[in-house]
Amino acid sequence: MTTDQIRIFLRIVETKSFSTAALDLFTTQSSVSKKIQQLEDELGVKLFERTARKAKLTHAGEEFASHAKIIFDVYQQMMTRMEHYSPQKKNVLRVSSEAILYACGLLHPLLNYFNSKQMTISIAERTTIQDILKDLSGHNADFVLIHDIYLDDNQFMFVPIQDERMACVFSRNSPLRKKKELRLSDLQSEVFLVNHSDYLQEQRLIDNCIRSGFMPQTLPMDIRLSTMMRHIQEGNCVAVLDIHTVEASITEGNDYRPVVDIPEFSLGFAYDPQHLAHHEHVVTAMNGFRSFFAS
Length: 295
Known about the structure:
Strand content: 15-25%
Structural class: alpha/beta
Number of strands: 12
Distance between the termini: 49 Å
CATH class of the largest domain: Alpha Beta
Radius of gyration: 21 Å
Oligomer: single chain
Number of domains: 3
CATH superfamily of the largest domain: Periplasmic binding protein-like II
CATH topology of the largest domain: D-Maltodextrin-Binding Protein, domain 2
């Protein structure tokens, strides 16, 4: 049994899909299937019931999942601790970010800055807010790029970079295109497409709609942004996303407008000061990072 097999297994558990797990892990579906088959052969049990649309855990798979999560968490903690003793890792800064935010170019100035300081940045591109928060709390990243609305724990420090707002994406054929800006009340009759694996973003949408006086009709799907944009283009649904994500992923058949009654929030870097206290190179980098963005 390898940590790679466990990583793949846990990703399938989270996405409920072999194909989505393969996309998230930048590998092929056949490679994912082969690794799971090898794992099942070693364990002597079937872990998943496979259907055309999703993968469902068997009873044995459910029990294995509870152990696998513990094993993988301990493995990541061990690797993090060992980096402290590795001379090759002393000058490496670990950053966790949503893949789409990296694609937007928001980390490029930071990369250039630390490259000029002879520091290497290792960026983990995550698909969900939950994964980023897990990296932060588990010290698998020195700091993370995240929106402040997802930080509930006072143990973390937050350095804002820029203010953000939400936008609604819809088909170019939608009557919503006639408006210059939108309010949530304009969207009461719409079906909201949400990434079901990112339950924090889904819950935030629901909370905002309830505050506007209605319960939204949602269409949860475990899909990538490119697939989401294709569904929206067909005209059967809309999506509410942060404006940087929208601008980086909008397709020709779609359009968007800002949603003015969703409060603005900040994008920035969060870190655990207690963790940084034991990593001198990260403290030095963070001080430089503060000055860099302040200027």
